[in-house]
Amino acid sequence: MFSGMSSDEPSPAALPEPVEDVHGDGRWMSQHTRFVQECKDAEPDVLFVGDSMIQLMRHHDIWRELFSPLHALNFGIGGDTTCNVLWRLQNGELDNIKPKVVVLWVGTNNHQHSAEQVAEGVLAVARLLTSRLPRAKVIIMGLLPRGERPNPLREKNAAVNALLRARLPRPGPVLLLDAGAGLLAPDGSLSQRDMFDYLHLTAAGYAAVSKPLSDLLLQILEETPEERRAPPV
């Protein structure tokens, strides 16, 4: 469907795994279990899934104003990697639901993986989503810049976005929305106004990235099922 790594070996970022309960309080598994239960009780049109960028969105007014009215579920867990999201989706978080759109935002926590490996991990999640939800569109949110000033992790995130952009066919069932460029000042710095810790978004930061996402979601939701279903590639 879309191109991946040339090697026959799967990317380590594309291997599903749960989070190890190093603290002993079971919080990660409890959240996953709650999401699986929500699948039994809700009929979402939009599913948001990913790490803290997704999780924290629901605590801002922008969620109530733009996304909750779209019959959305939020399956974000702080600290998750592509491996963790893959495991969650393979273990119940897609059961009993048929959203029209999935918003996927994950990858910035894959610290142990290269940009190439992270991109393949994100694509592995997208492949799973399009396989399980063949009538849905998937919006991959590009990884945001991080750190007050330019740094290797920021460069890696930008490289991941470039790899995703090159490998996703157009048109297709999976879209990349890279909404982070507007957060950077002309000198390349990030402001605490948008990212309070230079990683997580403030209300202003969420407002900046959510407007183009909301516009794209509304556009997709207005399409007919035939229009949403991507042509074979």
Automatic annotation (TrEMBL):
<dbReference type="InterPro" id="IPR036514">
    <property type="entry name" value="SGNH_hydro_sf"/>
</dbReference>
<feature type="region of interest" description="Disordered">
    <location>
        <begin position="1"/>
        <end position="23"/>
    </location>
</feature>
<keyword id="KW-0963">Cytoplasm</keyword>
<dbReference type="GO" id="GO:0016042">
    <property type="term" value="P:lipid catabolic process"/>
</dbReference>
<dbReference type="GO" id="GO:0003847">
    <property type="term" value="F:1-alkyl-2-acetylglycerophosphocholine esterase activity"/>
</dbReference>
<dbReference type="GO" id="GO:0005737">
    <property type="term" value="C:cytoplasm"/>
</dbReference>
<dbReference type="InterPro" id="IPR013830">
    <property type="entry name" value="SGNH_hydro"/>
</dbReference>
<keyword id="KW-0442">Lipid degradation</keyword>
<keyword id="KW-0443">Lipid metabolism</keyword>
<dbReference type="Pfam" id="PF13472">
    <property type="entry name" value="Lipase_GDSL_2"/>
</dbReference>
<comment type="similarity">
    <text>Belongs to the 'GDSL' lipolytic enzyme family. Platelet-activating factor acetylhydrolase IB beta/gamma subunits subfamily.</text>
</comment>
<feature type="domain" description="SGNH hydrolase-type esterase">
    <location>
        <begin position="48"/>
        <end position="208"/>
    </location>
</feature>
<dbReference type="GO" id="GO:0047179">
    <property type="term" value="F:platelet-activating factor acetyltransferase activity"/>
</dbReference>
<protein>
    <recommendedName>
        <fullName>Platelet-activating factor acetylhydrolase IB subunit alpha2</fullName>
        <ecNumber>3.1.1.47</ecNumber>
    </recommendedName>
</protein>
<keyword id="KW-0378">Hydrolase</keyword>
